Sequence to fold (204 residues):
Amino acid sequence: MNLFDDLIDPTKNWLPYDGTVCYYGKILSQLEANFYYSSLLASIDWQNDEAIIFGKKIITKRKVAWYGEKPFAYTYSNTTKYALPWTAELIELKAMVEKETGETYNSCLLNLYHDGSEGMAWHSDGEKDLKKNGAIASISFGAERKFAFKHKHTQHKVELLLEHGSLLVMKDTTQSFWLHRLPPTKRITSARINLTFRTIDSAQ
Fold:
């Protein structure tokens, strides 16, 4: 933990309007964060992500994985994934996040960015499978990366730096009114793992 972690207010809303984003800072010690980073890198069934854009299949360098309490179907970018059963580490992290946020989650989408050249374009997590206005809890491990929000109508932007072992929560109408992205950067040469705990609305 650094000296400024105690100054982070998890109740602060980083969005000026039309949604709620709370940043909890580091919820894990350096040792714990290092442990989960190494464990997730080795134990998760990482696969290159696929998207169908204008009828053409695109395979990303970024790798993803989809886990949950049931084999939930999750469709985005015109492709469907079926959730794998929780691993021990994911169950531990889910319990930790639920305790911090007071929310419950039944699934987790994981992203592995090998270095700063890999990012995520502007998008919102508004897929029909997800609970409407539900909380999405994002834990970051590895390289510290900038995370950006942009209002869909006003173009107002908000940026945060997501630290190793930190937690960010998006909830309420955030997905309806705001886009978010992970900008690529040449400065980052190490990997980042991101877990987004979420709630699928209908049991499959």
